[in-house]
Backbone:
């Protein structure tokens, strides 16, 4: 077995409160998995490789648990709209373009390059309603070396005429998608099989654009194939009120998905969760669901701020998402900074809500979101070496501590400060991807 040993300043988000930080530490890996992290140089055996990153930081790769891949081309546009205006004016017309495979390929290749460039090596992605384009995205992800949850989205009502599905067709396409993309499934037209790094998930857009028949049909598919669900939850007061009006028997946004049988079949991932009621909190807890905080999107499109500090203190699994294109930037590290910033605004206006500490936000972006992808999100024994090397952000003549360096990177760093990206111990390069 070939071991690779990485030396540098290791930051392991062992808990939201306190990371484990070790300067000049050695991360010993074998076949892309971390065996141990040592303070002293280990005895080398023949064939060992040592990669020395000096004072630079070795951190877990980022996880983006909520990104709309087909909205990549509209990021940073229409940001003065509120949710429904933005959907109708920008988003639905853009997503409808993915009926053309060639357009989808152009955008999806860019998305994957950009994710790697920004150090996002795990993602849960929305696509569009189109089977072909979603299949293409799934295959490109499989080839990329990233870890992902992806599928096709569903919407059969309250959508524009040019971008809506027939209920039966939506269910048939989704069942086909799920059954064809399970781990071990043959990659269409080839002799290769899906590795399981990219797994299918159900993606009803959100309750108001889905009929009860569609949601219940998806629930049956989830149960049959044991696949989870990724959707939006109480993302604005208007959305939550509209959902309740459309599903009067369910009583709350979260209960709509629960009653449709969509929860407990695999991971449940809910974006935003800005106004959770007792029912939503009970559902998050009961199903171990991930609540995904998307600070940029919250500021741009959505009204309200997730009570992240309260949910974290309550032990709920929390992650971060860019929500591109509702969020304008692809780097999850900037969401770490934004989560702290907007939590201070929340505390200012609602003193009973406390602010999020920097390392709590960093935890959400790494260990928090990484947990949905198996042993990912930490630099610790048994975890995959899915990691980034971040430049020591000290200025000339000054020396930052590792904590300060990481914080500065999240606030003002960019992809040029990411010196290396590893998934399964393999060096990923975004500029060689075609
Ligand atoms: Zn979203």
Residues:
């Amino acid at each position: 077995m070939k071991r690779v040993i990485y030396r540098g300043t290791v930051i392991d988000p062992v808990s939201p409160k306190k990371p484990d930080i070790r300067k000049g530490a050695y991360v010993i890996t074998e076949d892309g998995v971390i065996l141990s992290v040592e303070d002293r140089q280990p005895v080398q055996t023949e064939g060992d490789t040592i990669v020395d990153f000096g004072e630079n930081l070795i951190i877990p790769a980022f996880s983006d648990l909520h990104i709309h891949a087909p909205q990549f081309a509209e990021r940073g546009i229409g940001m003065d709209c509120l949710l429904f205006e933005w959907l109708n004016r920008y988003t639905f017309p853009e997503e409808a373009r993915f009926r053309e495979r060639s357009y989808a390929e152009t955008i999806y290749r860019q998305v994957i390059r950009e994710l790697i460039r920004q150090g996002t090596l795990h993602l849960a992605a929305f696509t569009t309603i189109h089977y072909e384009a979603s299949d293409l995205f799934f295959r490109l992800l499989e080839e990329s070396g990233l870890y992902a949850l992806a599928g096709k989205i569903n919407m059969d009502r309250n959508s524009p005429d040019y971008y809506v599905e027939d209920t039966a067709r939506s269910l048939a396409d989704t069942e086909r998608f799920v059954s064809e993309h399970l781990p071990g499934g043959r990659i269409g037209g080839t002799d290769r099989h899906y590795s399981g790094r990219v797994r299918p998930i159900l993606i009803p857009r959100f309750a108001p654009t889905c009929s009860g028949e569609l949601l219940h049909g998806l629930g049956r598919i989830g149960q049959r194939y044991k696949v989870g669900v990724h959707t939006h939850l109480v993302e604005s007061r208007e959305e939550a009120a509209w959902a309740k009006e459309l599903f009067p028997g369910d009583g709350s946004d979260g209960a709509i998905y629960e009653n449709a049988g969509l929860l407990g079949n695999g991971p449940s991932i809910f974006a935003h969760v800005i106004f959770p009621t007792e029912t939503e909190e009970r559902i998050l807890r009961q199903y171990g669901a991930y609540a995904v905080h998307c600070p940029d999107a919250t500021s741009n499109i959505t009204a309200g701020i997730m009570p992240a500090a309260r949910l974290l203190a309550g032990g709920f699994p929390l992650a971060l998402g860019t929500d591109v294109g509702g969020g304008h930037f692809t780097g999850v590290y900037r969401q770490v900074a934004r989560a702290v910033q907007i939590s201070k605004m929340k505390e200012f206006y609602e003193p009973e809500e406390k602010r999020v500490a920097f390392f709590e936000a960093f935890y959400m972006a790494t260990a928090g979101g990484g947990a949905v992808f198996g042993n990912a999100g930490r630099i610790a024994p048994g975890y995959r070496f899915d990691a980034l090397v971040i430049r020591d952000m000290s200025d000339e003549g000054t020396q930052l501590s590792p904590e300060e360096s990481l914080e500065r990177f999240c606030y003002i760093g960019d992809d040029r400060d990411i010196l290396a990206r590893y998934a399964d111990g393999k060096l990923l390069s975004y500029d060689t991807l075609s």
Observations:
- The domain at 62-373 is CATH 3.20.20.140 (TIM Barrel).
- The chain has a mean pLDDT of 95.
